[in-house]
Amino acid sequence: MRAGVIRAYVIKEFIELMRTKLIIMVYLMPSMILLLFGYGIKMNVTHARVIIIDNDQSHYSRILTTKFEHSKYFNPIIKNMSEKDALGLIKKAEADIVIIIPPSFEKKLLKSEDSEIGVFIDGSYPARATTMANYAKGVILDTLSKEAKKAGIKSKIIVLNSRFLFNQSLRDANAIVPGLIGLVMLVAPAILSALLIVKEKERGTIFNFFASPLSKSEFITAKLFPVFLLHSINIFVLFLLALYIFEVPFRGSFLLYWLSSEIYILISIAIGMLISVITKRQIVAVILTVIITIIPGFLYSGMLMPISSMKGDSYIEAHIFPVMYYTHILYDTFWWAKGLNRQKLSIIFS
Amino acid sequence: MWAFMSVLTKEMLLFFRSAGLVAVILYAFSMDIYIAGSGIQIKPRNVTVGYVDHTNGGLSQKILSHLHAPEFRKPRWFKSQKELSEAIFNKEIIVGIIFEKDFANSKGATINLLLDSTAASQAFTTLGYLQNILLSFYSSNMPVKIKIHKLFNQNSDNRTFMALTEMLSVITLLIVILTAVVFVKEKEDGTWDIMLLMPVNSKVIILAKSLSQVIIILMGVLISLGFVVLGTFDTPLNGSFWAFMLLTFFYSFSSAGIGLFVAAISKNVMQVAQLSIIIIMPLIFLSGAWTPIYAMHPFIRWLSIFSPLRYYIEGSESIFFRGTSFFDLWPYFTGVILLGILLYGYGFRKIGRLF
């Protein structure tokens, strides 16, 4: 491994990268992904479009509708249309929820007879549907129990005081941004490293390398060192973005974050290298890298759902993939500051 | 006409000769969608629960017995709140329940919950689940029954939704990249300038090349629909199949237009890769695939009007889940076709210029 030779080839790689203006994209892509998803993904449901059909128009039914109007989760419109028309609106994707209060609702309520409120929810987005269902139920039952208390009826209601640890306000940005950094740092170095090597293969210039006195390890080092360097700077860029634009709290050790990120970049470069071995054309390399890294990156990072909840083979796959460990560490450094005992997993992995 | 067919056939042959590419495309349309669909479950599963019980049991045990498999693991007992918090910190449990001493008195009860919000969405749904369990306990004396109907997706089966979304994302990604690369490869080899100078009308060549990739993608869509989406996941197809294929066809042209644009400004495949990902990522993730449009930031909502993927996703969802009639789909078709004409036309002209 001759330093002078490697240096020469590294400079050549850098010049090539500059010439193809790829440098811009190395930084633009991760930052853009972070910004877009950070602002775009909202897991809380607010301003759901609700149509309330009040067939009763009584004192209590109006209290109920007022409660919906004052809730930040719902944007209710009180209309007088038939059930069929309202459901048609859901079909046309113009409404999310239709609530139907039956006639003689108040009469039955006062006589303690059973009456039924119908809640129809657009189930196309299952997660949101479940959340909206829970909210709607909560609002209705809450209102009713409060009214019952006012009327002096003893109703036992259990109140849940919930505290979300680590992310008190359940801010979407806090939850997602560390996971996004994990995803981005998996995808970007892999694509770049795969392309750099496969580009030579496809154009045939790799034979120049074979014929030259360059040894294999020198070749690999020279090819991948620029990628490593460029993305190391990216670590800081993403960190600053997370801290200042998304205002994610950082309570852990920066050294741990930096070290584990560097190791993670190495893993990502290794994935890219693996892909470059089995592909001969650049386009195949690109598509393969994207498919192998983005989907598992999202799924197994634990951003959308915790790993413990995964079934059989997904569970095994999640453990094989490095994203889980890295995002674990990230969440740790950003939120918990528990420190070094997490580091072990990542080192075992690399 | 003959020139058109020969270029088309040439591109298709080139595609099928590259075994790696065929394999990757097949994988993208089958395994990838399968993984995406089967991986994510929104309902809580295997949720680890811990509890601290300061009461004498009875009611608290009754409540805990409602937390059972497959959604929850058997609740673990902890001595004190401090130990409970430690367990959450160490990620041993996701939810901690604390029953205080005066839990079940006559005035009503309060339960304290500690939730690990690292997986925010699961924490939220777990909270909803617990609320439901508790409400069902005590709303029995409430004379109002709330009947919740989840239209189109009774069991909130998230797999079908994820599979469909993934397929739409794959379609977008592949069309843009494939179309762009088909042109940029010629540029790299230097044969594109020659093609433009040939006596064959360059428009015919461009049309044939892009159409060949569209056909490949449509075949992939058929495969993935048949085997994965409809077969393995049993996605309901409440609307018309042909409406979906027609929508896909028009949408492919708008994506191909983006691919043409990318090809026009890139000089080699590396640039294509990075540029197309930069363009596609915002398209995919902000166009209502992961979060519905009306729930997003107003500025982003305004931007998404220009994204053909948004109309495609809404249209596809309406076709698959809501069973919208063909006639009611006109806003989606209009959006896709209009944007398609714009994008494809612009990309077409840009790549047809020699310099």
Terminal residue distance of chain B: 27 Å
Element order of chain B: H for helix, E for strand: HHHEHEHEEHEHHHHHHHH
Please tell me what the overall shape of chain A is. Answer: elongated
Roughly what is the average pLDDT of chain B, rounded to an integer?
77
Q: How many domain modules of chain B?
A: 2
Biggest sheet descriptor of chain A: 4 strands, mixed
Helix-strand topology string of chain A: HHEHEHEHEHEHHHHHHHH
Q: pLDDT average of chain A, as an integer?
A: 76
Task: Sum up the structure in keywords.
heterodimer; A: 350 residues; alpha/beta; abc type-2 transporter like fold; four-stranded mixed sheet; 14 helices; elongated; B: 355 residues; 2 domains; 5 strands; 64% helix
What's the short story on this structure?
The complex is a heterodimer of chains A (350) and B (355). Chain A has 350 residues and is α/β, with parallel strands linked by helices. Helix content of chain A is 66%, strand content 10%.
Provide structural commentary:
The complex is a heterodimer of chains A (about 350) and B (about 350). With about 350 residues, chain A is an alpha/beta fold. Chain A folds into two domains: about 5-40 and about 170-350, no CATH class; about 50-150, abc type-2 transporter like fold (3-Layer(aba) Sandwich). Chain A contains 14 helices and five strands. Chain A has helices at about 5-20, 20-40, 60-70, 85-90, 105-110, 125-150, 170-205, 205-210, 215-245, 255-280, 280-300, 310-320, 320-335, 345-350, and strands at about 50-55, 75-80, 95-100, 115-120, 160-165. Chain A has a four-stranded mixed β-sheet, sandwiched between helices. The two termini of chain A are about 20 Å apart. Mean pLDDT of chain A is about 75; it is low at about 335-350. The radius of gyration of chain B is 27 Å and the shape is elongated. Chain B is built from 14 helices and five strands. The longest helix of chain B is centred in the middle third of the chain and has 32 residues, at about 160-190. The model of chain B has no long low-confidence stretch (mean pLDDT about 75). Chain B has a four-stranded mixed β-sheet with strand order 2-1-3-4, sandwiched between helices. In chain B, α4 links the parallel β1 (about 50-55) and β2. With about 350 residues, chain B is of the alpha/beta class. At the A-B interface, α2, α4, β4, α6 and β5 of A face α2, α3, α5, β4 and α6 of B. β4 of chain A pairs parallel with β5 (about 145-150) of chain B.
